[in-house]
Amino acid sequence: MSVSSSRGDQWTFLTNHARVLLQIARDPDTRLRDIATRIGITERAVQLIVADLEAAGYLTRTRVGRRNRYTIDPTVALRHPAEADHPVGDLLGAFLHREESPASSGPESSRT
C-alpha cells in the first residue's frame, strides 16, 4: 500500500483551531455545539480550542444574557515562527473576503 493511498486523503491545510476561529469570525454569536457540528469535531474539542484561543489572546468571550459573544483580535500574530510576521487578521481576511464578495460584482466582472 502506498503512502498516498493510505493517508493521502486524510490531511488538510487548516487545523481545527483555524476552523473554529473562522466559524467565530463568520458568526460571533454562534454556539459551540453549532461550530462542532459544522466542522465535524466534538463540542468538548471546540471548548478546548476556544479556551486555547482565548488564553493566547486571539479572542475574548463576553457574556450576553445566557449566551457568549466572541470578539477576535485580528492584530495578534500567528503562532508558528514561519508565519509570525502575519497577524491572524490576514488569515481571516483571506477566507472571509472570498465568502463576502459575490463573484459577479466589481470592476473585474464587467470586463470581457
Outline the structure in words.
- With 112 residues, this protein is mainly α.
- It has one domain (14-102): Arc Repressor Mutant, subunit A (Orthogonal Bundle).
- The chain contains 5 helices and 2 strands.
- The chain has helices at 3-7, 16-26, 32-39, 43-55, 88-100, and strands spanning 59-64, 67-72.
- It has a two-stranded antiparallel sheet with strand order 1-2.
- α2 (16-26) crosses α4 (43-55).
- It starts with a helix and ends in a 12-residue tail after the last helix.
- 12% of the residues are buried.
What is the CATH topology classification name?
A: Arc Repressor Mutant, subunit A
CATH class: Mainly Alpha
Oligomer: single chain
Low-confidence stretches: 103-112
Percent strand: 5-15%
Number of strands: 2
Mean pLDDT value: 86
How do the strands of the widest beta sheet line up side by side? 1-2
SSE arrangement, N to C: HHHHEEH
Task: Output the CATH homologous superfamily.
Answer: Winged helix-like DNA-binding domain superfamily/Winged helix DNA-binding domain
Number of domains: 1
CATH architecture: Orthogonal Bundle
